[in-house]
Design goal:
By secondary structure, this protein is α+β, with helices and mostly antiparallel strands. The chain contains 42 helices and 37 strands.
């Protein structure tokens, strides 16, 4: 675990550096760390007096009086890096001090990483900017016990707020990046620790959270760990008592609840040993777990990632062999060689050959490269190329790092147009450690990142503290989207002249209903705009659908529309598509539209039933544009442009949930166009004034005004907290919030119980409604887990009411396992039991469209999956056969669910029969041995024959019959674009899905009544404040200013905790001496490029929503 908290100076030297060892014995000196410390002569064992001066803002050079550099409260940062509990027990009770050394070295690596991206401010010509490259001055302290005197190996890496600049001046420095990426840095520590522990023979691996686990640990070791973890429970109880919600506040509580440590070492050891013996696993049995066999020197070097193997390759190549001929590796050989063996085999064939070996390991490079960036949904818009292929003179020692970094960039950029540099650098380093990839160490990876920046393949924004990054490809794509809008200006013939349009709008309002000013502007843009591409920013509930209905009515009058111009809708979800069709407008999903016209784009061949003249008289309405990634939007605009459509109206809300693929189109339009064509900010959906006021508070609208800029994009945590607090106040007047007042869950079991409480409470409210009220109620949850718990409760009620009949039959169902295209390329992304459903024919394994295979095994070296078909046939499916492009398929996991006659169900997107696209409101009418008989509404012809009832059979064992789910609630993602008289929702404060965007969507769906049930309102507000859940466009990231100080609340909590603390300073233990490791001589990445700044946001890009593709 990696925690970082700001600290005051006080008696830092006495607190950190003069405590005794309890379990390890002896007095291990502390040591100075940081390049800045070495440069000013602070080396070796720490002088407590000098360290105290440092942490109080003073530097004392040899033979000189202390010099004050900083004043004020903030004096530095304490990075506390705690070892896994099992490792602490193996060290203290088992006596394996090698693990202690490994942990200290891993902590040192983390400190060096943090140092490489430390920043300081420099003013030149009256302009202040943040510079990456501060050199830290700090100390390392190893402690072996917690405040309850239980074994707990942890390292304090304490950095002063004073650092050295590149030109040797002492200045204040900042470590904001360490706060924002504490989880990733902690995973880096664990990966480094696991990497070195393996050399000592330990069978360790990283779990799903990136933490090191001992694979052969007996259950008793876990019981001992729990028995010696009372300090953890004590801290959690205090956190719940005072209501701390942020991580920084929790760290402050740790400090505030400390008691003096005991100095009776023998007693502490005896107590710990007695607990272990009581659990039936005393020190002797613990020592038996310590492996005796270490890796040989040869194997240790082969598994090292410090770059020695690539240097060997470079020596083998030599200058004369750089231009050696390329000899391709045969696919048959590749299946039996590891990537390392192929690299070594390619060492005599030149750099390009080695790069090809890397690519072939991941995917058949003759078809497409593993490092290629994701292509747009409409192929051929950009040149297909290996984006990260290195220049001819590229350094061999960074080749492997460049390749792995390219994969991580591809993986992240598929879902985020903008990300931080740390989000790709740290996973690359961790992958190198976990998979023992030669040449993928920190030095090589950061060097490779520097290369990509210098080559223009990566672009870094001006905010040096956050280092927001975007690929050159994504910036180009966004520029092309912008280019379509600019090129379309003045290129459309209006249906009605502006004066005629104004008269028709007045007629409509007189005969039908009054419109808001924003709705009039949208209606006018639809019927009289001279621009082909029109952008609409509409806050949730501002009546965009009403304006579209009015446009359809006006165009329905033949005297207004002599050329027969029609409206055609595109929507990203089936529910949004149905909303458009309900207005009498033909519509398709985005995926369906792109698939239908891709061939026309490339070959000028329209589908048989399409007429280009009709499309030239069509205005396309692209609904919920925030749902569309950049690639889909670019493809749709390109097709529309080639079809010659009369207009293309993209409407969305940039503060709602982002697209699953990379991009935020409304944000992009705002950034590049500097304005929207139309803005709607008058909320009309909510008839309940308190609900309407709450949404106005969330989106920053003041009063009822019709100002076109009457909303403000959200800012940082302080801004979000203010908005949500005001919204909650308005909701409280409408009884829209139910606070269960539960304490913070301490473990997985308690969290599960809280989720059950939330789901049960929502179900009780739903059960109390009449059947008619239920039909007008939308039930929404952020996660599928809450949905499933709610469905269990609701089905009990429906069974008692007689709507569900007969016995439940448990069925095996498929649930999506979301993998990016990059992750699909690698065998390591799959697990035994995963299910693959092909959406195209694959001749090499004899798979038909819709064929279903389960993963029986995998070979990560050969990058091959071993699959079992439905008939038991076994096939080897190579992800890199060097010949074929990876076919289209989706990945699922099997689960169990019970169904009965009368159940309402839905069919998940991606079923082979494509029923999810056309069938809704489905009910099970018969359940027999042959499968399911279901009845639902089918849109045979969305305009002429909508809502036709049809009964079909889902054959037992078919893929479609496994792709079903109960349909009594929606995820927030699926609910976006819907509205309902009444909304019920469950919201868990400790879920990563607890975000501003999710809360905004939930709150804005209801017209008259809303009830949001949460475990803790206070914790939910804080969680939302620190998790906007909104993605930036790449261009916004390039101009992203330093975020609002999101630690304000944490500082407040720290002050509260300190006020509760005993002011008496306690002593910290000394531990074993650690051999001095030379600080890295690498130079920090210098990315000082000037760009303009305008927007300030506080973004948490690492929190990926859980949702299903296409729904």
């Amino acid at each position: 675990m990696f925690n970082i908290v700001q600290v005051k100076g006080d008696d830092a030297g006495g607190y950190y550096g003069t405590q005794a060892n309890y379990y390890l014995g002896g007095n291990a000196p502390s040591r100075w760390v940081g390049q800045g410390a070495a440069e000013i002569g602070y080396v070796g064992e720490i002088d407590p007096e000098k360290f105290t001066q440092l942490m109080n803002g003073e530097i004392a050079r040899e033979g000189e009086a202390p010099q004050r550099i900083l004043s004020g409260v903030r004096k530095g940062w304490d990075m506390t890096i705690s070892a896994p509990k099992w490792a602490s027990i193996m060290i203290t009770l088992g006596g394996d001090k090698r693990l202690s050394t490994h942990w200290q070295n891993a902590a040192q690596k983390a400190f060096e990483y943090v140092e490489q991206f430390a920043t300081y401010r420099k003013t030149t010509g009256g302009k202040t900017r943040d510079i990456v490259g501060a050199k830290l001055i700090g100390g390392a302290f190893l402690h072996d016990a917690n405040r309850n005197n239980e074994p707990s190996i942890h390292v304090h890496m304490v950095a002063s707020a004073i650092g050295l600049t590149k030109d040797g001046k002492l200045r204040a420095i900042d470590l904001q990046h360490a706060y924002k990426h504490a989880k990733l840095i902690g995973q880096y520590v664990h990966a480094q620790f696991a990497h070195t522990a393996r050399r000592d023979g330990y069978k360790v691996s990283l779990d799903d959270n990136g933490m090191t686990v001992l694979e052969n640990a007996p259950p008793q070791l876990h019981e001992i760990s729990e028995a010696l973890s009372t300090r953890r429970d004590e801290v959690r109880a205090e956190i719940d008592r005072i209501g701390v919600a942020t991580r920084q506040g929790e760290v402050a509580v740790v400090r505030a609840t400390r008691d003096n440590k005991s100095n009776d070492t023998d007693l502490l050891l005896d107590q710990a040993r007695a607990i272990a013996e009581h659990k039936g696993f005393g020190p002797a049995k613990i020592r038996a777990l310590i492996p005796e066999d270490q890796l040989s020197l040869k194997d240790a070097m082969a598994s090292d990632i410090d770059g020695r193997l690539p240097e060997f390759i470079a020596r083998q190549l030599g200058p004369s062999s750089r231009e050696a001929s390329v000899v391709p590796v045969k696919a048959s050989e590749a299946r039996h060689q590891t990537v390392i063996e192929r690299i070594m085999q390619g060492a005599s064939r030149g750099l390009k050959s080695i790069w090809g070996a890397f690519n072939e390991h991941a995917r058949g490079h003759q078809a497409s490269s593993a490092t290629m960036m994701p292509k747009p949904s409409l192929g051929g818009l950009i040149e297909t190329r290996d984006t990260f292929e290195p220049p001819k003179d590229y350094p061999i020692e960074r080749l492997a790092a460049r390749h792995e970094l390219g994969y991580q960039i591809r993986r992240v950029s598929e879902r985020q147009a903008a990300f931080t540099l740390h989000e790709v650098i740290l996973p690359t380093i961790i992958s190198g450690l976990e998979h023992r990839l030669p040449g993928v160490g920190r030095k090589e990876v950061i060097g490779a990142a520097r290369d990509l920046v210098s080559e223009g393949l990566l672009n870094v924004g001006r905010d040096r503290k956050s280092l927001f990054t975007a690929t050159g490809l994504e910036l180009e794509r966004e520029q092309r989207i912008h280019g379509f809008t600019k090129a379309g200006e003045g290129q459309s013939t209006p249906i009605l002249a502006p004066e005629k349009a104004a008269l028709e709008i007045q007629r409509y309002e007189k005969n039908t209903r009054t419109l808001t000013s924003g709705q009039r502007d949208l209606l006018s843009a639809l019927v009289s705009s001279t621009d082909r591409f029109v952008s609409v920013q509409g806050v949730a509930g501002t009546g965009k659908t009403t304006a579209i209905r009015a446009a359809n009515a006006i165009l329905g009058r033949s005297e207004n529309n002599p050329y027969g111009v029609r409206l055609f809708g595109i929507a990203n979800t089936k529910s949004a598509m149905k909303e458009i069709r309900a207005q009498g407008i033909e519509a398709r999903t985005t995926a369906s539209f792109l698939a239908r016209f891709t061939n026309f784009f490339h070959h000028d061949v329209l589908p048989a039933t399409e007429n280009k003249e009709v499309w030239e008289n069509t205005i396309i309405l692209f609904d919920e544009a925030s749902f569309a990634g950049n690639a889909d939007m670019e493809a749709a605009m390109a097709i529309a442009n080639k079809l010659g459509v009369r207009g293309f109206v993209a409407q969305g809300d940039r503060d709602q949930l982002p697209a699953i693929p990379a991009g935020n189109v409304p944000d992009l339009i705002s950034k590049l166009n500097r304005r929207y064509s139309v803005t709607l900010s008058d909320i009309v959906r909510q008839t309940n004034p308190h609900l309407r006021q709450a949404i106005q508070n969330l989106v920053g609208i003041a009063g009822k005004g019709s100002d076109k800029e009457g909303y403000r994009p959200i800012g940082g945590a302080r801004d979000v907290r203010t908005r949500v607090t005001k919204a909650v106040e308005s909701w409280s007047y409408a009884d829209a919030i139910t606070d269960l007042g539960l304490e913070k869950a301490k473990n997985h079991q308690e969290r599960q119980l809280q989720l059950e409480d939330i789901a049960a409470t929502v179900a009780n409210v739903w059960n109390s409604l009449s059947p008619e009220e239920r039909m007008e109620t939308l039930v929404v949850f952020p996660t599928h887990q809450l949905r499933a718990l709610f469905h269990d409760k609701v089905r009990e009620t429906l069974r008692s009411e007689g709507q569900i009949k007969g016995e439940d039959q448990e069925r095996t169902v498929l649930r999506p396992k979301p993998l990016s295209a990059a992750e699909k390329d690698r065998a390591e992304s799959y697990a035994k039991g995963d299910v693959i459903v092909f959406s195209q024919q694959v001749r090499r394994i004899g798979a038909r469209i819709g064929a279903r295979y389960s993963v029986a095994d995998r070979d990560t070296d050969a990058n091959t999956l071993y699959l079992n078909g439905q008939t038991g046939d076994a096939v080897a499916f190579s992800l890199s056969d060097g010949k074929n492009k990876l076919p289209r398929f989706e990945v699922f996991k099997e689960a169990k669910a019970s169904f009965a006659v009368g159940d309402r169900i839905r069919i998940l997107p991606g079923d082979p029969r494509n029923l999810a696209e056309v069938m809704s409101d489905i009910t099970i009418t018969k359940q027999a041995g042959r499968g399911l008989q279901v009845t639902g509404t089918v849109d045979v012809d969305p305009v002429q024959r909508p809502h036709e009832q049809r009964t079909i059979e889902l054959r037992e064992g078919s893929t479609t019959s496994m792709m079903i789910d109960h349909d009594y609630s929606r995820t927030v993602y699926a609910a976006q674009g819907l509205s309902s008289l009444r909304v019920l929702a469950g919201f868990h404060s400790q879920s990563i899905m607890t975000s501003f965007a999710n809360l905004y969507v939930i709150g804005s769906r209801a017209r008259e009544a809303l009830n949001i049930i949460t475990d803790s309102l206070q914790r939910a507000i804080e969680a939302v404040a620190h998790n906007p859940g909104i993605e930036m466009s790449a261009h916004t990231a390039m101009e992203h200013m330093e975020v609002e100080n999101f630690l304000d609340q944490a500082r407040s909590e720290m002050d509260t905790a300190r006020a509760l603390a005993d002011q008496e300073q306690s002593q910290a233990p000394d531990l074993q001496e650690v051999p001095e490791r030379p600080m890295s001589d690498e130079h920090p990445v210098n990315m000082d490029r000037e760009q303009n700044l305008e927007i300030e946001n506080d973004i948490a890009p690492s929190l990926a929503p859980e949702r299903e593709v296409g729904d």
